[in-house]
Amino acid sequence: METELLVTNRILDLVAEGIDLAIRAGALKDSRLIAKRFVLGQFALWASPSYLKKRGVPSHPKELSQHECLRFSRFKAKAWELTNDKETTAVMTTGRVLADDFETLKAIALQGEGVGFVPSFLCAKEAQEKKLTRVLPDWHGDAVSFSMVYPAQRFVSPKVRAFITVAEATLKEPKILKAL
Known about the structure:
CATH class of the largest domain: Alpha Beta
Number of helices: 6
Helix content: 25-40%
Number of domains: 2
CATH topology of the largest domain: D-Maltodextrin-Binding Protein, domain 2
CATH architecture of the largest domain: 3-Layer(aba) Sandwich
Order of helices and strands: HEEHEEEEHEHEEHH
Number of strands: 9
Largest sheet: 7 strands, mixed
Strand content: 25-35%
Mean pLDDT: 87
Low-confidence stretches: 174-180
Shape: elongated
Distance between the termini: 32 Å
């Protein structure tokens, strides 16, 4: 069995393009697709130890305005909404770097170029290796949610059903959740 993987940030028409399954981030618009949603932690602030040594460690979200913020270009607002589960604040961000890919933002943070607002699960390995540090650890953003979506049809193909089963089982493993 052959598997073709298309990696893009564009929303593709699965039916028109003959795609069996897609993984989409965030809230979904109404569609004719079936969706299985899963949550992988939360958005959090991450920076390299070298950046924090050079620029200082903020003690409150309002201090982020004095930092180089690595921003996700698909977020419409320039403000990051953060909560500590007691209060919520929107922080206007500044920074020279915008990217449409969280892995890219993480790579730039690893180079010591700023504070990234990135899904925590992407930074688990680097945090364990002390290459990235959680900034303002009591504060976080929204939950990071993904959905596996596939066309609504009478019969779901065995390969799509098998992929969904394996993905769900993998995401439920304690070691995955512990890393988040």
